[in-house]
DNA sequence: GTCTATACAGGGATAGAC
DNA sequence: GTCTATCCCTGTATAGAC
């Protein structure tokens, strides 16, 4: 009750989550060790296990956080005050770090994540919400709703696959080629 | 000189590679242990390190093999004796184990693979050859070559992304929705 | 809350006999 | 070529002091 909004303890907790988010993006969950999280965050061993009973608990917190942040950024683009066609184009041409890969999508290849329902859930939610938002925008461009839903899945997929191709070839432009190829199709050539 | 084409030793080597291929598909390279490969293949510890000096050497052999096999299967579909339009459709609607993910594409999220140029190379080759073959087929449908190349990247990306979405949602149909959404666009609605 | 010390299984590999 | 025994390091914690 005498505390400010964020106690000193919360600072360590936040630093742990942030460091875990970064490392998960770089190397995945399974391949990230508690020691790496400690080194990155500057937090001590004792503190980690004070704030999180296990690596799994930290992983869940970090994945949830990443998922929320990524969804918020995507929805910000899709809900801008502009014509639907422009919002769709803005989503597809958004600046992305192609060689780093998608912070969320890449987790679907992580064995620790896929083996754990609580880690999978934020990922499922992210893509469900993203595809739904895309379908809404696409429907606003005048496409029937059932067509819009399939097309929204295609749009989300081309971005995820663009990341895969970019990383596979060490070529950041592969993502742009994939999305621009789809945009041409969407805009009727 | 007195040997048959495949010596008894090759049998163990082959079983190790096959087991590694399966395990890499299931769990990735980094998360697969030599012990798992031994258990799966039925080969003994001594034999593993007789045939492959390190886990890395086994991984390179297994990834190369997987890449060759996957490319051969894809090209078989794309080079059938049928109209280009049908071959493209056959590629997109090919039976795929969506929830298992792509044996090649998934490796782009593996930290061990991405940190090693020799492991990355077969993956790069696979997608380069796949996109080139797709571009040829698409060009045969009457599309200008530069457009065909971008479009080929889009096709490969939608398949890869479809896998990601399917695994993310635990929904095998997500892959079909992604590819059928693309097919509608390709066939001019 | 944070620290240092300790524990112990498993990963990745070597040694040397058969 | 294959086997068993052994090795050292790191991942993932637990214990208990400060």
UniProtKB/TrEMBL annotation, chains A, B:
Residues covered by the HTH tetR-type domain: 10-70
DNA-binding region: 33-52
DNA repair recorded as keyword: no
UniProt xrefs under PROSITE patterns: HTH_TETR_2
InterPro entries noted in UniProt: Homeodomain-like_sf, HTH_TetR, Tet_transcr_reg_TetR-rel_C_sf, YxaF_TetR_C
Gene3D superfamilies: Tetracycline Repressor, domain 2 (1.10.357.10)
Entry keyword set: DNA-binding, Transcription, Transcription regulation
Pfam families registered for this protein in UniProt: TetR_C_13_2, TetR_N
GO molecular function, one term: DNA binding
Official protein name in the record: TetR/AcrR family transcriptional regulator
Organism for this UniProt entry: Natronoglycomyces albus
